[in-house]
Specification:
The chain is an all-beta fold. 0% of the residues lie in helices and 55% in strands. The protein has no helices and nine strands. β4 and β5 form a beta hairpin.
């Protein structure tokens, strides 16, 4: 898994690219605070090499909890900036800081 960040000079936004190796998966989405945990708005595109990849524009100077939804299963990102316990989910969420 990988997360890359590109800060825009023209506005307080960071382009965050999420990459998930999941060759056997049919559908991967990134869900989190930045999209109200809605899997339909942030589906990742499957590449020929089997990775899923997508870029989101998120407001800079903040941190966001997120997870991947891989064929209905929740995954954390091993490349996350940190992890945060979430009482609602009863599990840790990945955190990206931008």
């Amino acid at each position: 898994m990988a997360i890359s960040k590109q800060y825009l000079k023209s506005k307080p936004v960071c382009k965050v690219t999420f990459t998930v190796p999941a060759k056997e998966a049919n559908k991967v989405s990134v869900i989190g605070d930045f999209n109200d945990w809605n899997a339909e708005v942030s589906s990742l595109k499957k590449l020929k090499n089997g990775n899923f990849k997508g870029t989101l524009n998120v407001p800079a100077n903040n941190s966001y909890e997120f997870k991947y939804l891989v064929d209905g299963a929740y995954w954390n990102d091993e490349a996350a900036d940190r992890y945060q316990w979430n009482d609602y989910a009863g599990a840790e969420n990945s955190v990206v800081e931008v």
